[in-house]
Amino acid sequence: MNPNTGSVLSAIRGPVLLITLGVLFAIDYAGGVSVGRTWPALLIVVGLFKLAEHAAVKNS
Amino acid sequence: MRRSSLVTPLLLIGVGVLLLARTLHPELPLMDYVARYWPLALIGWGALRAAEILYWAAASKPLPARGISGGDWLVIALVCLFGAGLHAAHGVTWSERIPFGNIEIFGGQTFDYPIEGEKPSSPTPRVVLENFRGDVQITGADAATVKVTGHKTIRSFDQRGADHLDQVTPLEIAGDSNRVVISMRSPGGPLRLVTGTVEIAVPRGASIEAEGRNGNVRISNVQGAVNLSGRGEDIDLQDIGGPVSISGARYGSVQLRNVSKPLHFDGPQAQFSIEKLPGELRLAPGDMSGSNWSGPSHVSMRSRDVQISDFTGSLAVTVERGDIELRPMRLPLAHIEAHARAGDIRLTLPPAAQFTLDASTNNGEITNDFGGALKLDSSGRRATLRGAAGSGPAIEIQTERGQIVVGKAVPGDATQVLKKLDQ
Fold it and tell me: Looking at this predicted complex, what is its ipTM?
């Protein structure tokens, strides 16, 4: 893995979280599941990023 | 040196354009759009920032440690609070279109022209309103004609232009004696250049159908069915002999009184059906109240307080966010169900009421006025109240987060509620 991958992942985590947040609200307003129920998806996204960053550090 | 991002200037430009449009054209329904589509700004913000970072990474430029700074998150939190508040106030989902037809981006002056028309009809005609923009008052009368009176308001830069628009937008009363179609074409396309304010006198046996309208609708004293669909503002129906069906987004209040047949309301944030409504019902942006209903009735609200008093027949109320207050005043009781996701539930019963109760809250307390007949159990934040007072129908009350009060009515309660309805 590219040694730069770790820093890219860490820099891009915020924007991806923001996109996820927007998508959760969009799903709510489009008549789907309410944000009150889908918010744990944000934790999952953070967790996935942490895992990916961990793997990147290990492989660098 | 800190790498500067394109996102902040773009956001500032976007907010500036929005505010400028609002100050130059206050009549534009911009807030409707913002209330509905603000999550797209978050997605755009995130996507733009992600694209920037990937571009810098590909160009081997130094990357920021954090793609979104602490200050940015603070702004995002404020945007979310503001957006969610606005959405709750405007209450529309994406499936409900905001028609461009309501946009008035036209300056000029307004000119008024009288409207008049009449058509003989059978005693029970179907009166259909098509392509009509404006306010309508329909009243049933002892007549054998459908008679329209009122005025047309035209926006134009000068009298000549207004005269021309008046000529090309005649009020048309078409159809036959059993189906009378009233329409007034508006050539404005997306602009609302021509609106009407009309009073329509119809035979008492008429049924009414109106769709895709913008404005206030008042209908009284008709014996046929009333069917309203599309977007609009206030609705006021009184003394309706036939079934009533209302669907679509309403931005004003809905007031219904004395409806003798089943009543259905289907909006983006509120749905209800009532078998008969000898009393009244008022639906405002923040609450719904009603009295003297005949069930079975079903009420489902997304974010409103609900107060219903003096109802007979079964009743089921579901509220996502809001308090529920129910006061059946007549015995024997019927099956009652009340569910709230976040909100208090208060049930006030006549002292001699007989019922079997199953009440629970996952996070709150329960107050019981009926004494030992009902057993209160609390463990942690959860509380249940179960038991029977005599042998009566089941009452199920449940809230995820909120207090529950099962109280006894005292003289004067009814007048309190009715007073509130009159306000």
Answer: 0.84
